[in-house]
Amino acid sequence: MFVEPIDFPQNYTQKQIHRYCYITVGLVIFVFIIAHVIIPRINQVEGYHNYADKRFILGIPFFFNVLSNIPFLIVGILGMHLLFFKKTKEKIDKIESNLYFAFFFFIFVGGFGSGFYHLDPSNFTLLFDRLPLSATGMSLLSALIAERISPTLARNLFFPLILFATLATIFWGYTESQGAGDIRAYAFVNFLPALFIPIILLFFPKNYSGTKYFVYLVIFFFISRVSESADKKVFALTFGLISGHTIKHLTLGFAVFQIYLYLKNRKLQIFKNDVLINNNVCENV
Fold first, then answer.
1. Which residues make up each annotated binding site for Zn(2+)?
2. What gap in Å lies between CA 80 and CA 106, rounded to an integer?
3. Rounded CA separation 221/130 (Å)
4. What are the tens digits of pLDDT across the range 89-108?
5. Strand, helix or coil for residue 278
């Protein structure tokens, strides 16, 4: 499923890699500006907050849409515990560890944010859902940059990426409050990880086993998007048992759980002349 990665570390110096990556950042900024010039303002989809499952159970409105966020809390705690207490099989670079920790932290916060939103769906409460969500994608992107390209580069990009994601999300919330909603910047923030994470996985060399977990992540993520778009249809087809949006939460929970499994189970891989010669030797990384 994955093409053979190009051998960047041997073909290019770290200085060259950083230069190309910063050029890419400049191009991304340029595309962002051009997109806002060419593409007209885009409003939040009408009826976005009108979910199929409105059941009020045990005093909790939208009961299943709220409770289905529990997997995010669990995965967030598991991931932070794994990294904080260094329970991974292989040693992990400090920068890489911190970035993956940030990923699980935002997953955890996002569980609360999404639960809060679904108690009373509105553009205002949606802001608390989208803020950690946008930061989650940027954190995973930064972690993969650290793992496969350069820890120093990832450290330098992390805070600008988080700041960009935060400001774009706040900007969307502000425009909605002014009656002139503009979701373009927020959509761009979500597009960046969706574009660059697969590129990194496909074209940059891997140091660890466990690529299958990223395949599972993509599969579960795809299922979550499909089920979200078919919220009412799924609810009707299951005779009111479960909605597409609830399935979205559950499958996204499984998706981010794959990152936990990857970090917990991955093994350092040592290659010589493109041949794997040792899959169990641990070196300082």
1. 118, 245, 249
2. 10
3. 17
4. 788 899 999 999 999 999 99
5. strand
